[in-house]
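Look over both lines:
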Amino acid sequence: MSDNKIYTLNKGINVFIFIFMGMTIISGVQTYRYEDKRSKSVNSKTLPFFNYRNNIVWILLDEYASPASLQSQFNFHTSLVDSLNSKGFFVYNALKSRSDLTIYSINSLFNQDDRGPVSNSMYAADNLYNSSWIKQLKKNGYEFVSLDFFNVGGVPKLSYLRTYPDVYIDQVLCGSVIPVVLDEICEKGLPYDEYNQKAIKKFKVEIHKKRAKPTFIWVHLLIPHNPFYRDAKGKLNKNVINIGKASRQEIVKQYTDYLSYGNTVTLKMLEEIPDWKDKTIIISGDHGARMLLPDNDPRRKETFGAIYYPGMDRKELDTIKYMQQIPFHLH
């Protein structure tokens, strides 16, 4: 190849790189401006507090579908509905979520029912860290305890799980073979189950601590989210399926078994709460069961929801359509 051709080729490559860098910078600036505007809009909202000082406990069960969806998707009735109804909870049949992805669903919850699309998981993680709801609760005199693999409200993660690229190094490596190799080296055993058991044990400790301030305890369990590590009786599942390869029958069986295990865990956690009937209790999912549904099926965003607080207004609670609206109606 002649020097002239090499020069021309080199010049063309440089121009392409320059244009690509310019487009990347412009896109980054536009994203920053959009997120800054959306963040200011979220933080301008305020929640009604009704002058109450109840302790709040929220147990979130990841990928727990609504009773209506469980019936239509799996022909399954969850006993949790009956148990909570008998205890005086208000249980929703088809509560919706703003998103069928965990980080966006929870981000919307902790940021005043934020409905604006978040640019990526990095921004959503940052919004969770700087939660406007938690800031308002703290101003109102609350202490916040988070048992989560996300940094919610500035509280350190309970465990590190590589679920979303929410830190810079993960974003850089996302899509490469490196995270897969690191997971093989670092994540021995059953990381999701280990996280769940750690959260359950930590919850028992935190719920019995004596505190000077009213407290909001948030616990996020990866149940019945796959992998379906346990059967209905809580025993380790020796044949955990790959939902991308398993039959419908296998998925239904292991999902509903894991969900039933989650019911047992949840009710046990509820009974461990001292004087729970004097507190505000929320038990919910974050989105529906997605594994057998097309992307446009609305049931992907139908999730479980149940609320209890002393003297609760059932008519008011019945007006809630989205899980992310719950904080606006707590008394």
User: Anything to note?
Assistant: The chain is about 45% helix and 10% strand.
